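REQUEST ID: PR-0412
SUBMITTED BY: lab tech R.K.
PRIORITY: routine
TASK: structure prediction, single protein chain
INPUT:
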Amino acid sequence: MKLARTRSTAAAATAVLAVLALATACNRESAGSVASGGDKPAIGIDLPRSDSDFWNSYAQYIEKDVKSDGINALPISNSQNDVTKLVANVQVFQNTGAKAVVMAPQDTGAIASTLDALASKKIPVVSVDTRPDKGDVYMVVRADNRAYGTKACEFLGKQLGGKGKVAEFQGALDSINGRDRSEAFAECMKQKFPGIKVFELPTDWKGDVASAKLQSLLAQHPDLNGIYMQAGGVFLQPTLALLEQKGLLKPAGQKGHISIISNDGIPQEFDAIRKGQIDATISQPADLYAKYALYYAKAAAEGKTFKPGATDHDSTIIKLANGLEDQLPAPLVTKDNVDDKTLWGNNVG
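STATUS: complete
OUTPUT:
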């Protein structure tokens, strides 16, 4: 027996694991967010970012549902919109016994190899809000993002009477959500409202980029009369601040008001609708994203399967090339229904 070599190898392996744990510790949430699930299968959960009010609301729902549902969650991590951190966090889940993983990859084209690695270990994946371009997924929990773009187009088109100039803050076009919303908005505008000029402003989901591009656009087109924000969680505050600075934040119904529709359904958007600062938003269901992400992760870990078709929670499961997708409802919110208590934005916190 080569005992000395065995001991040195074991010591080296222990050191590597310690370094890996230290490297990922800064990306992990507090131990208080972990629920004790006894002998239930362990679930790894990665939050995608903390620079968005929408995703911070989702994180609150995740933590609440983990506790209330008795989910055996591993320490929750946050990849901070960085795919390399997501890959490292998933590796920790693998090493600590995850039987299923919940993630929301922001770069849907860069996660395929990680999904392949999880599939090889027979660890199913639930992807929230985003649909990976390649790689197997057990279930995507998401709303119909093309419907977001179409609803936004139809609302603005009617508000403007089919004429005018609209700025569109596009999300990252390397993500399925950014592409779906942008393509659907463009197609609808071209078909239904050809009299409206759309200025497409790629932002990579960054509020400061949107604000800078809007400022430049307003200098060239001071008669801009509509804005479509694909994510209120990152675009709302800087947009309202810029419009107020320029004296353009006029209440709905007043001459010179710029009609604005957003996507997310966060409480701040609801407040802006009540004040007449924006006109509408599409409520992306943060509460249902959390609820059904955990529901499907638990089901996956237990070996359950699903088929395409209508569900018992007012949604439809569709077949993808790389898995299934549960398309949850996302209602339009205006001044007429902004106080509806069933909207998650009126209940969060």
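NOTES: Residues 3-25 form the longest helix (23 residues).
REVIEWED BY: pending
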